[in-house]
Amino acid sequence: MNIDIVQGHFPPPNPDGATVVIDVIRAFTTSYYAFCNGVRTIYPVATPEAAFDLKADHPDALLAGEIDALPIAGFDFGNSPWEMQHADLAGRPLILRTTNGVIATLNAFPCAHLFVAGLVNADATAEAIAALGVDQVVLVASHPTGDEDLACAQYLRGRLGGDGISLDEAVQRTRDARAARKFLSGDHPRLRAADIELAATPVETAFALRVHSGDPLQILPEPRSA
Ligand SMILES: O=C(O)[C@H](CS(=O)(=O)O)OP(=O)(O)O
Ligand SMILES: [Mg+2]
Questions:
Q1: Which residue minimizes the CA distance to atom 14 of ligand 1?
Q2: Global pTM?
Q3: Ligand 1 pocket, 31 CB below 6 A?
Q4: Cis peptide leading into residue 216 (ω within 30°)
Q5: Which end of the chain is more exposed for a tag (fewer CB within 10 A), N or C?
């Protein structure tokens, strides 16, 4: 298996292989906890306007996301795993707009298989990719310069049989990442240290998150292979 790591919002085409878009702080940690708390599907969108337009077609949808890490006016939630844990989401679709993970996901097709991941579900993602039997894997650290997504990509590469780093190192690099500072400083009530705690805590029983092509794209939990 050939495994490439790239950084940023523009994954290379990977028509026969598997691509994983990684966003540890916070888009796919938020997505994971949204599903844990009952969300039915996630629609990733590029802009607040696209979110409001899509909600017109899905009136039961909830809106989550950020601009400059802060909640968007008129949205129900920030891009916050803690907020996902503390809300009633059962059976609702979620429309998600974020700066890095969501934008890279929207740019990731063409690829044969697309997943999104954080450290929370990195092991489950590695298992799902290994089960595909593909020759080419692209790991996309979606923050163009941040270390948290790159560390997760390097951990995932190791889990897939390539050069890797330990889970402890990936956890520490998440806590130390520049993007984590504004949450850990306590300067803003909607930027919570609890979000970083959740982003930096792998969950052994987690599930992978697969992106299904179509208009709109949908993110759905992937059943774990036995
Ligand atoms: O809301 C987030 O955590 C980030 C923005 S930043 O890196 O914290 O400024 O968006 P994401 O798309 O989840 O990286
Ligand atoms: Mg991020």
A1: 100
A2: 0.98
A3: no
A4: yes
A5: C
